[in-house]
């Protein structure tokens, strides 16, 4: 039974710099990197290559000794340029200098007729597996597990998010193959959740073998965690998997083509870009060729991902494994005279105390910078977190339980149902400027490793 | 503004770690962040942009919402004074004189409240090494509005210090307190110095002059209470009260407008409603608490009508809205987000109970003519209990889902 869910709570952050629906001819990225820090819960990295080695797309370059069935593969063919380590030899990046034409490690087409365990083990050895995320905790799934269901959110409601209908057009065949493979991996259902407020893009419209649900409403309606909460919530002891549509296509390509194709179309967005558009590249691309020479101001912050959940990288940084978007916004390291008191229409606020008349211009797009707009304080305002969290969860009580490291309370208040992105809006709207997402991760880790 | 910024940057090293005045860092920080929004940027991971709101903006909105009450209170203080001495009868006569008398009485109270509280706040911030909290912007304005204009200044100072220390700082500052700070200040005055905050003599400033013959300084609440005791119709008693000063001083309309004796900011229901409109319009205060608070008082008034054994209980319920500090208390005190219930369901119950208790205390308790003060403090104490059950219901729903 497909479900139609209309959500009211939430908030759309409208920003200047939406990508126009075209593939821009930016110079292609030369280098690519796999960053173990992208994979939450990555415990004991073991690098399988040395600097100077040549690899093909799909060559295993990294494993987590705690989950060694899953390999992390080179997204492109080329030469290992650098294995970058930080303090205490912490592995930061494995950089690859890409060949002009990509060659692939072939592992043969994957037969979907085999049993669940064999298929999972096969997929885990191809490089596509890290696309499958386990809930609770938001970590890379264990191929040995049997999830109760698999959830795919077919739309992204984050600020300036890519339109999967555009980036995945023409990939229908692979998307369907990915769904078929996923359907084999669970004894439960595969849920494909589409945007109920728009016509369904062709890539998702004809999909078989999955339950198609419709979600509509402001952000975070597109967050898979919110969707799970309304479809089949995660209780203590439950295990569900989630996959991004881009990951589904990669899985489909592995199944049909027999090699790891890490190519994807990403959105290059943000107010500080002269040209905001889509670009075709590979997982872990160096962003400098898309950004440099495309800036209309000097002092910027480059973000891999979106402004709510992304990660600050520099102009020479690399796209995160799970990110399908880069965002460039102004850096906000300036003082503002009486900044808290001035009446203004150019700042965005969820609160009417600042944006009293903002309802007059609901479609207005804003330029936001990275300034914190105030200092951290104790929790004072109440009811706001609840109004941007379309789940039956009490965020402030949950966060206080995390702060107090109260395990029972965290479980009872629903820590299993969330990852950082589900409460990212709380972090944005918070009057007291708490690091909400950091707290959520701290709570999850407390539970996970207890 | 460049020179101010330069001045700040130049002084900053003095207050930073290792500087001579390191211990005063939070005092410096308070001043600096008041003048300039800081240059902090978001972290490497997590939300890269933030909402433009901060606590300062929120708190100043509450102060703005109180301004109508304050201005009205200043003028009404002068008006009541001249009315009692027979120098004026019309509301807008002797406008300048009234404003000046009001200012002379009210401004010192505000200054004393802010100064006394501010010093305590800053001292604690420096000793306990926490930032100076903006919550005091509100408290410092609330306290003057809930005391009579004749309150001695030393009492204002003492009450403010008591409230800030005992009701707030011992718990760890704004956000941690259990009781509403301003209500605690008033309760302190009420129990420590009842002669200056209750009775018939304190609400109207007379100065050196004498009141006209037959003048009574009683508030509407005590008039109604006496009507209950003497068993005369309460509404008539209100209408006939102080007729020597003019017709219908305690008529419903006049009480709604607020041209009556009382604490400085609480007399005018109209001005309180303007404040409520600002608070609700900006989303700073919970409309649920305000609506349920008024509803609770009305429903309790109706219930008492049904059960009426004396004339006070038979008072039409809408009179409860306009007498005393009920409206002011519900709009500005009960909605304090820190001491109120924090869950959305809890807010309905919390507001409703405040309204109910206010009327019960008013009608049935001979010792305290004003019920809102104790009702708010009482429900402040019970708010965590209400929340406890609302949160428990949430947990139970989650648990039931798992076992089904």
How many domain modules of chain B?
A: 1
Helix/strand-derived category of chain B reads mainly alpha
The helix content of chain B, as a percent range, equals 55-70%
Low-confidence stretches of chain A: none
Number of helices of chain B: 16
Whole-number average pLDDT of chain A? Answer: 92
How is the CATH topology of the largest domain in chain A named?
Rossmann fold
Give the neighbour order of strands across the main sheet of chain A: 1-14-13-12-15-10-11
Percent in helix of chain A = 10-25%
Organism (chain A): Algoriphagus boritolerans DSM 17298 = JCM 18970
Family (chain A): Belongs to the NqrA family.
Protein name (chain A): Na(+)-translocating NADH-quinone reductase subunit A
Enzyme class (chain A): translocase
Describe the structure in your own words.
Chain B: Composed of six subunits; NqrA, NqrB, NqrC, NqrD, NqrE and NqrF. Chain B: Belongs to the NqrB/RnfD family. Chain B: Its EC number is 7.2.1.1. Chain B: It is an enzyme of class 7 (translocase). Chain A has 450 residues and is of the alpha/beta class. Helices cover 21% and strands 22% of the residues of chain A. Chain A is globular and about 65 Å long. Chain B is mainly α. Helix content of chain B is 62%, strand content 0%. Chain B has 16 helices and one strand. Strand 21 of chain A pairs antiparallel with strand 1 (36-37) of chain B, so a sheet runs across the interface.
């Amino acid at each position: 039974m497909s479900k139609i869910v209309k959500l009211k709570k939430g908030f759309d952050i409208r920003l200047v710099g939406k990508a126009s629906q075209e593939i821009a001819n930016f110079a292609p990225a030369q280098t690519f990197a796999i960053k173990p820090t992208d994979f939450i819960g990555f415990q004991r990295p073991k690098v399988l290559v040395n600097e100077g080695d040549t690899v093909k797309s799909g060559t295993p370059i990294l494993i987590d000794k705690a989950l060694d069935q899953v390999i992390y593969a080179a997204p492109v063919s080329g030469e290992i340029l650098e294995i970058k380590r930080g303090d205490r030899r912490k592995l930061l990046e494995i950089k690859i200098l890409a060949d002009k034409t990509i060659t692939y490690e072939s592992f043969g087409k994957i037969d979907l007729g085999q049993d669940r365990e064999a298929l999972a083990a096969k997929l885990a050895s191809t490089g596509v597996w890290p696309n499958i995320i386990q809930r609770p905790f938001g970590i890379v799934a264990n191929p040995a597990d049997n999830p109760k269901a698999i959830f795919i959110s077919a739309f992204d409601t984050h600020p300036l998010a890519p339109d999967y209908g555009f980036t995945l057009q023409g990939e229908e065949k692979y998307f369907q193959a990915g769904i078929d493979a996923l359907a084999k991996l669970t004894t439960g259902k595969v849920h494909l959740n589409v945007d109920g407020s728009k016509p369904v893009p062709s890539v998702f419209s004809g999909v078989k073998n999955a339950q198609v649900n419709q979600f509509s409403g402001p952000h975070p309606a597109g967050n898979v965690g919110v969707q799970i909460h309304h479809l089949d919530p995660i209780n203590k002891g439950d295990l569900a998997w989630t996959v991004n549509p881009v990951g589904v296509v990669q899985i489909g390509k592995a199944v049909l083509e027999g090699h790891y194709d890490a190519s994807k179309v990403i959105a290059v967005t943000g107010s500080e870009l002269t040209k905001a558009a889509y670009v075709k590249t590979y997982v872990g691309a160096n962003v400098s060729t898309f950004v440099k020479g495309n800036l209309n101001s000097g002092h910027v912050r480059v973000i891999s991902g979106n402004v709510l959940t992304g990660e600050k990288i520099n102009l020479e940084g690399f796209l995160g494994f799970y990110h399908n978007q880069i965002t460039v916004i102004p850096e906000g390291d300036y003082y503002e005279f009486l900044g808290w008191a001035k009446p203004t229409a150019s700042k965005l606020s969820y609160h009417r105390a600042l944006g009293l008349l903002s309802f007059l211009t609901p479609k207005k797009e804003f330029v936001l910078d990275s300034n914190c707009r105030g200092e951290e304080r104790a929790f004072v305002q109440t009811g706001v977190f609840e109004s941007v969290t379309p789940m039956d969860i009490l965020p402030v009580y949950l966060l206080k339980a995390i702060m107090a490291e109260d395990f029972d309370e965290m479980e009872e208040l629903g820590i299993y149902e969330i990852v950082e992105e589900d409460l990212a809006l709380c972090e944005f709207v918070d009057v007291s400027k708490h690091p909400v997402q950091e707290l959520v991760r701290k709570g999850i880790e407390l539970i996970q490793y207890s | 503004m460049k020179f101010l910024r330069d001045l700040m940057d130049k002084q900053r090293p003095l207050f930073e770690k290792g500087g001579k005045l390191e211990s005063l860092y939070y005092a410096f920080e308070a001043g600096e962040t008041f003048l300039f929004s800081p240059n902090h940027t978001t972290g490497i991971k997590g939300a890269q942009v933030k909402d433009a709101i901060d606590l300062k903006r929120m708190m100043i909105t509450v102060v703005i919402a109180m301004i109508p009450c304050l201005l009205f209170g200043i003028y009404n203080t002068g008006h009541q004074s001249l009315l009692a001495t027979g120098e004026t009868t019309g509301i807008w006569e002797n406008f300048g004189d009234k404003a000046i008398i009001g200012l002379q009485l009210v401004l010192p109270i505000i200054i004393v409240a802010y100064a006394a509280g501010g010093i305590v706040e800053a001292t604690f911030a420096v000793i306990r090494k926490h930032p100076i909290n903006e919550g005091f912007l509100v408290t410092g304005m609330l306290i003057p509005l809930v005391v009579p204009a004749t309150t001695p200044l030393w009492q204002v100072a003492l009450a403010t210090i008591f409230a800030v220390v005992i009701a707030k700082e011992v718990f760890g500052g704004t956000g941690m307190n259990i009781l509403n700070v301003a209500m605690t200040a008033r309760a302190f005055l009420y129990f420590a110095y009842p002669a200056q905050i209750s009775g018939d003599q304190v609400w109207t400033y007379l100065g050196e002059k004498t009141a006209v013959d037959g003048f009574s300084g009683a508030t509407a609440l005590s008039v109604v209470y006496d009507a209950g005791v003497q068993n005369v119709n309460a509404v008539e008693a209100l209408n006939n009260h102080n007729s020597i000063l003019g017709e219908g001083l305690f008529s419903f309309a006049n009480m709604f407008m607020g041209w009556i004796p009382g604490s400085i900011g609480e007399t005018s229901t109209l001005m309180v409603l303007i404040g409520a409109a600002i608070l609700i319009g900006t989303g700073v205060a919970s409309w649920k608490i305000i609506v349920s608070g008024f509803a609770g008082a009305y429903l309790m008034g109706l219930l008492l009508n049904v059960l009426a054994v004396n004339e006070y209980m038979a008072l039409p319920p809408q009179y409860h809205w306009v007498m005393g500090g009920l409206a002011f208390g519900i709009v500005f005190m009960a909605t304090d987000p820190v001491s109120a219930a924090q869950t959305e369901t809890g807010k309905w119950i919390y507001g409703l109970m405040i309204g109910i208790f206010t009327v019960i205390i008013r009608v049935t308790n001979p010792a305290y003519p004003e019920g809102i003060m104790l009702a708010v403090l009482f429900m402040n104490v019970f708010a965590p209990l209400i929340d406890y059950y609302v949160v428990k219901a949430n947990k139970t729903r989650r648990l039931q889902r798992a076992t089904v």
